[in-house]
Target: ribonuclease Z
Amino acid sequence: MHYKKLAVAAASKRTRTVLPTRLSTTTTCSLRRCLSTRGITASSNSSTTDLSAFAKSTTRRAPYSASNSASNPRATPSRDPRPYPPLVVEPRKKNRPSKYKIPDSVSKTVSRELYRYKYLYHEYSLYAPNRAFQTWKDRGTLRHTKVPDHFFGDRIAIKLAPYQIDGARFLLASPAPKEKQNPPAPAKPEHGAMRSHVQIVAAPTADTPGACLLVHYDNRRYVFGHLSEGTQRLFTEHKIPAAKLSHIFLSGKTDWATTGGLLGMILTVADVIISAKAAVEEENKLRRQKNKPEITHGGPQRIEIHGSKNLEHMLAAARRFVFRKGFPLDAHELRADPRAGNPENSKPDYEDENLKVWKIPLIATGMESRSPSSSTGSQNPRKRKLNSSEEPETMETAVEGEAVDGVDDVPAGVENDEEKTQLLMQTIIKHMFDSDWKPDALVEQSLHKVKLPAKIFVRDDEGKITVYKGPLPGRDANVPDIKVLVREPWPGALIHRLPPTDPSFDSTCYVVKNHARRGKFQPANALKYGLPKWTFSKLAKGESVTAEDGTVVTPDMVLDPPIPGHGFALIDVRYEYLLDSLLERPEWENKEIMENIDAFYWILSPEVKDDSRLKDFMAKHNSFKHIVLGQGMSPNVISFAGASGKAIMMHRMDPDRFSIPNHDNKEEALPAGLASVAELGKPGQRLLLSPSVEFQPKFANALMDTIRPITELTSTHAKAFNLALEAQQKVSDPAFAARVAESEHDIPNREAEIVTLGTGSALPSKYRNVSATLIRVPGYGSYLFDCGENTLGQLRRVYGYAETDAILRDLRAIYISHLHADHHLGVPSVLAQRAAANAAKPLTIISTPKYIGFLHEYKDVEPLDWANIKFLTLIGTGRKPTDDPNGPPSADLGPANNHFNMLPGTVCALQPAAARNADVLEFQTGLAAIDACFVDHCLGATAAVFTWPSGLKISFSGDCRPSDAFAHIGKGSHLLIHECTFDDELIGEARAKKHSTASEALDVGRKMGARRVLLTHFSQRYPKMQAPVLDELEGNEEKKGLGGDRTVVLYAFDYMKIKLGEFKMAERFLPALRELYGELENEEDEDGGEIKE
Model:
């Protein structure tokens, strides 16, 4: 919204005011520029400006009053030479609440100058949010006032009422509409936006492994390429809004390298759209009460995802942990060649009001021998029957007493062919994102038909609903034939096992083109036929008009020739076996498809970059600009400058605990063959498609200046830096090291290293990635506690590619605490890279049955070295930690032998039972014991305690409210890693969302007697640091753990590496960190972090 004039009125309580005369130098300069735009000159050597000319050009809306002038000292002739009448504002009426809201759009520049100079007279286009006004409200310096209804006259009243700030009142108003006939509006195209461009969002780096393009239109956004792990965080880093994202076109084959960030992006976009719809609905409720017209949500109403075969299978496998309502999602798999029957077919495979898309499948040749199914003799999935007598592979982790019934769980009416399987997948996906299911709905059915586990209710004699406690179907005899009430399960949960599929190696590519736009309307041509001007708009819209002489004037008679739509092609050919199919595609010779294509974006890999066929193809089609985005060719630049800048500062302060993120700004050279026909693409570069075609390299993201954070630290944050230097001097004292070693002589494995790869919650942010902690215990191996999205990328930033592969080969176990997506979406990429690194040791995944079930279904999409992966399933026992192991459980489990009861406060057992043997467990994982319990967070959330044969004991909380059971099983821990999502002031929110505060986490450590405590998993509302926690940590000098050693508490940061024996050294840096992050928080408040287009 644009407001053309800023008028300011200042008043006291007793005085009806006039415009003030005091103008600062800055304001005068701004005013002088404003006057010059109106053809009015001002003296350049005077601090005041003659406003008489300006007054004549400005219509005043209130009569001049001499009494007002006399009563206001600022309006005396000696101080107020203005000859024009003042604005009059009625005094504020008491006890009358304002109906006006703070404006949606207020210029940041105007806000700052208003607050600084008290008044301002200038012309602006106001664009930025109202953070300054909110600050004034928080400080109590801003109060609403009432505008008289007659004040605006024939002006257009805007939503901003005058605001009173320390006695000064400010008024924003828009000019009156001019009563003159405007020329006809430019012709709107029937198809195609007036302005659109393609932007490179990501090129392959260590923590953004995929290449991604964003196609921008005013009304919506489209993503093409890979949505790999880290892409969502990259959108946040570069302030690219995802609210208008409506279509995702995934290129290449369906695997985690292509889709690893898809689920996280979907959840984020879904939450944004659902929140926007809810806000619109709330507004419409108020409008209905006031008989006002309702408004509609202007953003995307649904999201559509296009990709290769197995896309639907991958999405449906996530049904165990993805559930949203009111967010329609459609998945479109490319299962057949659109031009197989007719190579000349030029009909787009997708089309909307903005663009046309042709899907180009590259068929893998000679890949039958690579498919794992070919070696096991499984049949083609196109011929596999859902009710086949062939028994599916039984999960190794099946719980004792749990039925393994995957292929029979198909809705009635679904037949046993590929089309019906696809229908089943689409039904599951619909229920995942747009279900009308209600968790509290009860349905009546016969007791014999109830599927366990289920909570069963009956009505008593008085009609009240009570829990059924009688015999259960399938478990007990003499089950009565009665009607019962059962809480209706979520439909997706009824499918225990998806129909199997095989990996697909085909790659999907795209040709994308804007629609042609109508030519420019020529009024002179219309006037030649004697047409009145009111017919121009019809002609511009494509309608024909009949002239007075009977001539039918068609649009083509008055419009310039159509403007053709331009576009680009995206070719994903990362494997050699795809090149033959690429060269044989008929689309390259189809003039209608390839006409006005300006660029080819190539997603390549080292496997194909030297292939001469690729160079020959580019040389043959040299009329296009060829842009390469390839692993091993794009430089490994820093992708997340915000987090890396803080890490560099921390490295300068404490080099032993923090390292500079691994990166290389040296641009890799394209192979000699490609360099002559192509160029390397850089993130940020744009290709303007409309209204003209222009390559815009000027928008490329600048390389991060890694020296700047150090300069900023030593200058702007000199106090924090000096405190850090003092800490460095303290910890380098040999006497200090000796005292630490003596106090920790009974702590085993003091060289064990804790690496906090992700310390944020919910979703990746600019400064913190989601949950992941690596434990490296010399002599035993490495262990991952939770593995959120982009854990592999974080590892590569800390250690580099080669050492990361060595760590993965040494990885013994991955523990997933619960099913929330921010705790496990990084597992498939870790497993895939571990297989690529030729790991020989078996890897054990420890979690609950639902997560392990997801991995079993996903392995059909992508081979993950399955033979080298073992599982330990955490199942419920109903026993509390204090129960007698040989006695009955004290917890009310409901139906006997129900392993699905995961009650908080009860302990878990390992499945298979053989793993409960210490020797077997040590051989498989290197651990002496794994103790776990269910905690209060989400269904099946666990906390675990890991004990090594050396006696080292580490407890990990996952996400939870404080748990006495966890404190009990973790008694005597040498290290507690506990979540600390909220500070103590938000205890209510912590209880509502089932998280812990700082004090609660420390209290769990006190009950355990933990020697060391590491706090992590912070709410993303704290963008850099949770300052109150540091205050708490510095007050821990007197807290004692077991063994008489003082408990040391630290705060986790991304990229931090700390050995168990270094906690007391790191503790010395807390004052410096507190000072640094307190200053950084202040900067964040001032600078803001708005996402702009």
Notes: The radius of gyration is 34 Å. The chain is about 25% helix and 20% strand. The chain has a mean pLDDT of 78.
